[in-house]
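In this supplementary section we document a worked example of the pipeline. Step one takes a protein sequence of length 820 as its only input; no multiple sequence alignment statistics are reported here. Step two produces a three-dimensional model, which step three serialises into structure tokens for compact storage. The input and output of this example are shown verbatim.
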Amino acid sequence: MFFSLLCFLSLFALLTSAVNVSHDGRAFIIDGQRRILISGSIHYPRSTPEMWPDLIQKAKEGGLNTIETYVFWNAHEPVRRQYDFSENNDLIRFLKTVDQAGLYAILRIGPYVCAEWNYGGFPVWLHNLPGIEMRTANKVFMNEMQNFTTLIVNKITEEKLLASQGGPIIIAQIENEFGNVMDPYGDAGKVYLDWCAAMAESYDIGIPWIMCQQSDAPQPMINTCNGYYCDQFTPNNPNSPKVWTENWVGWFKSWGGQDPHRTAEDVAYGVARFYQTGGTLQNYYMYHGGTNFGRTAGGPYITTSYDYDAPLDEFGNIAQPKWGHLKKLHEVLKSIEKNLVYGNVTEIDLGNYVKATVYATNGSSSVFLSNSNITADATFTFNGKQYTVPAWSVSILPDGETEEYNTAKINVQTSVNEHWPNEAEKQPESLKWFWRPENIHAALKGKSHSSAKKLIDQKEVTNDVSDYLWYISSLHLDKDDPVWSNDMSLRVNTSGEVIHAYLNGHHIGTHWNAYGILNDKVEFKIKLKRGNNVISLLSVTTGLQNYGSFFDTWHTGLVGPIQVIGRKGDETIIKDLSSHKWHYRIGLDGWDKKFFSGESFSNTKWASDQLPSNKSFTWYKTTFKAPLGNDPVVVDLEGLGKGFAWVNGHNIGRYWPAYLAAEDGCSTDPCDYRGEYSATKCIYNCGKPTQKWYHVPRSFLRDGDNTLVLLEEMGGNPSYVNFRTVSVGTACGNAYESHTLELSCQSRPISAIKFASFGNPQGTCGSFYKGTCESNNDSLAIIEKMCVGKETCSIDISEKTFGSTNCGNITKRLAVEAVC
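The serialised model returned by step three reads:
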């Protein structure tokens, strides 16, 4: 009897904790209530488990109620049927952290992810299976995809992480952006798409499934939109809610590229327009971008930083004004949730790109006023009251009359981060360096792991265990050989990103492609000798292709033809080496011997004298004290060439500070938020290293000595390397009256107020100046008294605080610059 009662109570507890998730054409329905969902992407492998609680809490404080993540197949199954869910691959721990914060989760299983991730998330062993064709009706691929998808579904089910079990996961995704590339797959692509939908439904997990960028998504899949703006998107079924899976808050960076920036005003405009036009779920991509640790960056040519200009920066700091401006928008949207999902909708075209949308229910109404004109502000009368809506903005009137929020009016601080010196020790002077050369002699002498009488795709040889693959061949010349001349070159066709060329043990040149060039041709001047000539070509990848139709089949490495070009007078003689016997050697000696690991740190073969600089293929090692405090830590690697960095054995990613961004094309400040955004609209950092700062998570550090190891591939000078912390250095505000401005230095106290004016101040953060009118009282002194010595202070922007002005009837503003 007692046992039966216990079973009943256990079953009752399970049933009562379960959350029912369904949908109609208006919204997702959670436990019988339509909801608006405000989500943000945080990818667990791009941060660390120690960072997750703070990131998720900051997302919650920023007004999100949902966290979205992909599932990364190649991270979890790097070797076929060998799985890794440890450390920052611990998907279950991440989802439980979301649950503990009281947030929902969206799990985009894919398992193709794109995501600027290496090979789009596919493990390369998949490519090398006999008879496989990916993302099409191919039994080999579908068997592997189903095996992994089933593994993930079983894991989350066993841990009771589905909403139907009382867990946080309310939505799952199968496949990803297939509709963008589907046409070349023909009928087999459509068969595959239908199979994906049927497989997803067969799991019967009790929550809805989505397919993004898939206009022909079969029912009951919900098709969704990705992009900078999705207000014009319409689902393919009237019973599907309007979902924006990826609101691109910025863009990724590529080596040789500048820094892209999307303004807070424009992101807010896109979000407000989406909910104005009936949207129910939008997800920021990214809310925290994070770091491409190790060899996870895809592309190719995607940087180690995946900051994405997100509301939480790469290191987890709050990025203002984007975080705060969106937080205020979320607060307003949540306050009118019932009207949005239950109200009757009335749309009114007021002319000249101005529209009003009224959501009314139970005697309550909320109004959106949008102005999509890119130059002209709009002043008009609506419901007997006059409103002015700036160009390219949306005003929200929660009560139908009073403007509570406008997307173009920022009333939160702008933070300027500072890279603070390491107070634990004086750097870089304190760093003592040790070094040792990488042993490339075996490759230069022709020693290899395998051979073939053809050029082989680099993916097939390495199985993606290394960026590095040696292609080695030889050419024998008799004294009367017709190609013998003093004017000769070696012509190489490559689809790898970098090539280091050697002839008879001597370096004859290094070449790299520019971002976006998939196949390149380069010639190296050579001088052959009589007898045997050994040609050693080191092909280096910088992340495998992650997007496009049949991207998995695109060749990587040396594609051929590889030719020796001889010239005698007007005659050109070409000798094709492509069908010669080629020997293949995978990786680098120091990597194989784990020079970066703890076991190698006490190795006596490291030299401490005659430290070389600008020498390729050199390993460097030093020890350092961890910076004091809890602020995020970065290492400045400017002065180095290209390579990899490890801290205490953790691979913090590829570095390439020698690759400078293009000199031309940068924007002038301030960036004009008006008009549609693209990744080339507002760009900065021209002529500087694409990335000089590299994230060192606090969990990688320890008390006492820490070890930094560098593999320098192209040649650089380690003597400038130094560690810093990152936090707010300057906090500015330029906010409107009748609002409260919060100034915060986050982890540091406000040390001084550099500028303050209440009236109509001009300029931008760092260059404010007084306007034509201001308050009679000393604004600077007032704010000094309120804020100096505090980490955070709140300022009521009104004449009550600052005194009367001679500004007439204009809306007044407070401009302030605080020093942290």
